[in-house]
Amino acid sequence: MSTENHKTDHIPELSPRYSETHSDEQLGGNTYRMDPLLELELAEVRLAQTEREIELERLRQKREENIIIKLWLTYESTSASHACDVPPGKDWITMISGALDIPKKEIIRFDGNPMNYWSFIRNFEDCFDESVGFRSMLNHLIQYCDGKAKATIVQCALLGPEDGYRKALELLEEAFSQKHIVVHAFIDKMLNIPAIKGTDPNNLRRLSREMRICGLTLTQMNYVSDLNSVKTIECMFLKLPLHLQRECVKVACRISKTGRESLFKDLCEFVKEQSDIANTRYGLLVIRGNNSDKRDVGVSKGKINANYNAASI
Questions:
Q1: What is the distance between the alpha carbons of residues 112 and 22, in angstroms, rounded to a whole number?
Q2: Is 236:190 a contact under the CB 8 Å cutoff?
Q3: Positions of the region Disordered (predicted)?
Q4: Which residues contact 146 (CB under 8 A, 6 or more apart)?
Q5: 186: exposed, middle or buried (C-beta count within 10 Å: 0-12, 13-18, 19+)?
Q6: How far apart are CA 8 and CA 53, in angstroms?
Q7: 62, 134, 245, 306: which could join 161 in a potential S-S bond, CB 3.0 to 4.6 Å?
């Protein structure tokens, strides 16, 4: 099935002869260079061409998806019309299977937030490789960047396909992948989570999620020491409600008896466990009882209180 139904207009590269300086003997002492305004116009034309290629590529992908859907509907209709359930020809099955086995590419976008840089690059490299061509890779890289990230690399479209793609990756890495910036961004986000008051399962789950994300990211970047600092651990400990702080102290005491200090991962595991407990059916029942200051749910009377509604839990 052909996927090339269009040809883009060819915009010539800027000719080296326009920027060449001739000797005085050759041109009688005069120096000729390309008019800067003309050079700027050619650059703008090439940039417009790149944007047009990106839009055409998007339309091509959408058209391919529509064709696959139509083929599948035709296949189902054909199969249903056979009284003896005879499958279509082998080539037809192979074509349909090959088209349907192609997973839909879910590409995340990047707006210049350093916290999302590494996940974006890994996702992009998983979805595109050199087999699609450097021009296509560069166009898609520009397409899936927004804001300051796109502004950083859009001029790379003026370079050759391979040089432009590699330069775009280099510029993104220089601008958004500095590890110390990424590390501090993750830690600051985690430390700025408000302290949990009372029994709040939703905020406890959020705290657990942010701690696990931060721990996983910094571990992959080999910055675990920043997580294991006394300041970081104490700050996260104080975000727990008082009753969980007491339980956490018991866990830390047991760990210290083994001959080592408590680490961030220990606190992270403790918060995850408490979050799981708080969000179970009976955990929510206890929390509801504490919030209403009615711990007696009718058990002492030998029956369930009429106000207890199991469907609401």
A1: 44
A2: yes
A3: 1-26
A4: 109, 110, 111, 112
A5: buried
A6: 7
A7: 134
